[in-house]
Amino acid sequence: MGSDQNDMQGLPEPVTAAGRDGLAAILAAPERAVIALDFDGTLAPIVPDPDLARAHPGAVPALAALAPKVAAVAVVTGRPAEVAVRNGGFAGVDGLDHLVVLGHYGAERWEAATGKVTAPDPHPGVEAVRREFPEVLASVPQSRGTWIEDKGRALAAHTRRAEDPEAAFAALREPLADLAARHGLIVEPGRMVLELRPPGMDKGVALRRYLRDVGAGSVLYAGDDLGDVPAFEAVAGLRGEGVPGVLVCSANEEVRALADRADLVVPDPAAVVHLLHTLADHLP
Q: What is the pTM (predicted TM-score) of this model?
């Protein structure tokens, strides 16, 4: 890549030409670049109880070093925006004025500059599912130990603490799909989790909309789970439209779908944080 190669010294090199072009575009014009990241499994290690998930200790310093040098940093998550802000420790941090959190797959937006969340009214099917969810779980013997996470605009069944997590996950897929369909929702599978949420809410839609809003000239997206596949697909589509991008996978052994699509694979959130720090160091 000529002189751009010197600019990338010390940065991990993407394995694809498209990824290398995306990284070169970010380095060449950081003021037009958006750095977008999933939260759980990418900025925060996966833990058995999602309520206890917290950003890696180096995540906020890395984002604070990077954010002033790019157009924006966006955390794109299925969590409520306020929960991600709390668990990430993103509020009131010097240097994070350009940070936004797109919560509930983009249905909510929190902006560090204002500290406020904006969101539309919730889908009416969520309340109906909330009432029926416990009964459905009780009807599936393998689900013992599964618990329900109420995200406000979505609900999720976590099987990681069940006696046999994979058996519980498999046994619940059909009854939860039926429950979701009755009330106009969809089921999104993840790492030992089945989430029921309104259609049209995914990270790809959220990412495309946000990049359009800010007029992004390039993008880096990092994720770890099936819920990040739409965002990967959005970046791939944008590359076809002339917007360079880099796809980063925070690897896990349970899901290979992202690693197979990624330009760059790193082993865990600590490595994501290191990548962010290194990128910040390479930007003027």
A: 0.80
